[in-house]
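Morning!

This is the sequence you dropped in the shared folder:
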Amino acid sequence: MAGLPALPPMTMTSARSAARSVVSKDVVFAFGIVIILMFMLVPIPAWLLDIGLSISITLSILVLMTVLFIQRPLDFTTFPTVLLITTALRLGLNIATTRLILTEGHNGEDAAGHIIQAFGHFMIQDNYVVGGIIFGILVIVNFIVITKGSGRIAEVAARFSLDAMPGKQMAIDSDLSAGIIDEQEAKKRRSDLQAESTFFGAMDGAAKFVKGDAIAALLVTFINIIGGIIIGAVSKNMSLADAASTYTLLTIGDGLVSQIPALIISVGAGLLVSKAGVEGTADAALVDQFARYPRAIGVSSVIMASVALIPGIPALPFLFLAGVTGGVTYILVRRQTALKDKASDEIAEAARAKPAEEPISKSLAMDTIRLELGYGLLGLVQGEGNRLTNQVKGLRRQLAEDMGYILPSVRIQDNLQLPSNTYVVRLREIESGRGEVRPNMLLCMDPGGQPITLPGENTIEPTFGLPAMWIDERHREEAHFRGYTVVDAGTVITTHLTEIIKDHMSDLLSYTETQRLLDELAPEYQKLVGDVIPAQLTVSSLQRVLQNLVAERVSVRNLPTILEGVAEAASYTKNVGLITEHVRARLARQLCDANTNMQGFVPLLTLSPKWEQAFAENLVGNTIDERQLVMPPSLLQELISDIRKAYEKFTQMGESPVLLCSASVRPYVRSVVERFRNHTVVMSQTEIHPRAKIKTLGTV
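The structure's back. Tokens below.
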């Protein structure tokens, strides 16, 4: 037509693509299901019935072989669907053959197809009674023995699988929390667990298909024989003998063609559900497990040989089987002996072999805490006594008692690149502190900060940066007499290491350490752990709460109370900051006790209403999770100056008061103070225990 653009001709490639899109696998599958339904509704010729029966037998053999060669039941999760399709196919073919038998049976034995005729002749062998009895036995074996047994196994497996599902789920979560598996493996295990439960549940229902199929076969057989004889004798003018001969042959042939695939499918279903928990193909699993016990096969051989000696018993079959099992026993014993000898030789060879090259994974390993010493300090860890090593061991116990934190092992090694008297503390390979000590001298410090009037070498104490002096061992008594603090080189290193660990404890408190704290709780608290983790909070979130606490040097030794506080707060929020503040309120007695001075009261320095309002007004964010402090730099500098002046005043008076503020702004006040006075304790009014003695020293 004029005015319309010419359409490009369809190429061969585009035509093939269009054909593939139309004739896809799902379309073919749907078309096959429709054909099965058509067998039940539309009369089909005998030749098409032969094709359908051939497909039914082929499918049943294919299913059985697949069951024999799969590694585990979950590799064939489509079995219930296959069972439904094959059962529907057999029922459709039964209806089609029944229609042909009753309408065309008078025309001869091939009226319902050549396959039914061949199976009928093979089974009957010119004796209808024997053929009928054998067919009945075949149906009974399929219905009562195999189908009922496999259905019972599937039912029990489904019940136990569903009952064990919560425990298996908890085991997966426990392995994930312990770091044994990663998130990807946990997802895979959960998927397999869900598939297993669904599979056995579906198998329990699918077994009813086979049971119903067997019942339907009996009814169809009865209807075909009785109805065929009546139709042949009454409507088709056949003699009673001819009608009985023809219709019995066709009916039994039809029943065999239906029941043999049903029997094969039933055997496959029984093998599949009874294989639960066994890995590998069926033949490999059976051979492997029987071969583990050659003595059992040997005893069986002796028993069969003994049976052959009984008078009246045919000796040849039992002697033959006794010889076969005896030969198998000999082969298995020789194989086990050879394997043991080979294992012994490999162990001996491995013992003689040179050590293998260290795997690259060890080079990637990272020390959590490492103390490196210059060569001049090696005497502190060598020889008998090992004072530094013993002090580090004591440090781990001290931290466990004071902070409730299990310190990872401290690796001590020499570093020839360091100056001789220098040490370095590394946390996860990053240098976190260093100092210089004199291994054969004592560090002397004046508690009041006054100059030391003893002969020695002036220095700066590496932990707190205080003026100090290295003195000779012979001046120890005089230093004590003058009231100086005197420590040896090992104690200096241990003290520095302790403070570094306390400053970085939040970084060292890893997921694994958090899980270890939970695992080492007393048995009476494990129910509490189970209620909180992971139902209300994950281990990772609990780790962040504990990190927030130890970052302010709050002991987490009272872990049960912390978990109780977490459970209370997690009921209304998942915000880690809010949960931490609630836990701190639950630890009010502990916090007040830790900050009580020698006079028996908690010294307080309160934040003035001016600054309280300033913090409240400079918090932005629509939700709690988004809230943050945006105080102007000039105002922030003024606050820092006021706090610094107040603390300098009280430090000169020998006091180290707690900065007290409202609960709503405490986290933000702490975030400001920790940048210039990290050791200053910031508490809220909710963290002051009602029975604690307090004394307000001033206001910022």
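Headline: The longest strand covers residues 430-436.

More detail when I'm at my desk.
O.
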